[in-house]
Design brief:
- The structure is a single chain.
- The strands form two sheets. The protein has a four-stranded antiparallel beta sheet, sandwiched between helices. The protein has a two-stranded antiparallel sheet with strand order 1-2.
- The longest helix is centred in the first third of the chain and has 46 residues, at 44-89.
- The protein has helices spanning 2-16, 20-23, 25-30, 44-89, 96-107, 135-142, 202-215; strands at residues 32-34, 41-43, 112-117, 148-151, 167-173, 183-189.
- α4 runs antiparallel to α5, α4 packs parallel to α7 (202-215) and α5 packs antiparallel against α7.
- β1 and β2 (41-43) form a beta hairpin.
- The termini are far apart.
- The protein contains seven helices and six strands.
- The protein folds into two domains: 23-89; 93-218, Beta-Lactamase (2-Layer Sandwich).
- The model has no long low-confidence stretch (mean pLDDT 84).
- By secondary structure, the protein is an alpha+beta fold.
Length: 231
């Protein structure tokens, strides 16, 4: 107890007297403390140098991690730009569903992709993406205000994908400014940790927006408003 109290008093004294080691430099130089990574005794100066080196090493690791994350973000942005350019450059709207699906498979390392559109224009009703969709899937999609990411809990839309699907990302497709969805984009994986509720969805939101913009070309043109007609 006395030994602990004495150490506490010494620590308080040194904190209250910062000039102590300036006026007693020989004490500071002669003091020895245990090395942080071994049993040998080292000087306080050497101990401080080791502490600085550890701090520098930690900062270097953080910097390397930031650089790596920046490089990954740059690569993702480049892939996104390539995919969007392909969609914009498509001359025939009938090719867009395939370009959406194949682009996601190619650029974003997703094992399985499926697409369904409803309210599709007559020239495209024979496309695979225009296959019938259950009313509960449409209701579920209309209620999605953000991508769903998580386990496959028996979702009907998971049946659009081939193979065992343990996790899903489901992206509602909407035209800008509307609340009703016109389609659903489903990404699936056999890895239960590929899509989780805790993952960030910013990239998925951008994928959904790009797909929505491109695939809206397959929707019927809105009827022109008659002169003098008001809803």
């Amino acid at each position: 107890m006395n030994e602990t109290l004495s150490a506490s008093k010494i620590a308080d004294f040194l904190r209250d007297q910062p000039e102590f080691f300036q006026t007693h430099a020989e004490v500071f130089v002669s003091m020895r403390v245990p090395a942080p990574h071994g049993g040998r005794a080292i000087s306080l100066i050497e101990r401080q140098l080791l502490a600085v080196k550890d701090k520098v090493r930690s900062l270097e690791m953080k910097l390397a991690e930031m650089i790596r994350a920046g490089q990954e973000n740059d690569a993702t942005l480049s892939k996104m730009a390539d995919w969007v350019h392909t969609l914009i450059a498509a001359r025939d709207a009938a090719n867009l569903p395939e370009l959406v699906e194949s682009g996601i498979l190619k650029h974003f390392n997703v094992p399985h992709v499926a697409l369904r559109l409803w309210q599709i224009d007559t020239p495209y009703i024979h496309q695979p993406c225009a296959s019938s969709v259950a009313s509960d899937v449409i209701t579920f999609t209309n209620g999605l205000m953000a991508p769903y990411c998580g386990p496959n809990s028996g979702f009907s839309a998971a049946n659009w994908l081939q193979g065992p699907i343990l996790s899903l990302a489901m992206l509602p497709l909407r035209t800008q400014g509307t609340s009703q969805a016109f389609g659903l984009l489903v990404l699936g994986s056999p890895d239960p940790q590929r899509f989780t509720s805790s993952m960030g969805t910013e990239l998925l939101v951008h994928i959904g927006q790009a797909a929505s913009g491109a695939l809206s070309r397959l929707l019927p043109e809105p009827l022109p408003e008659l002169p003098g007609h008001h809803a």
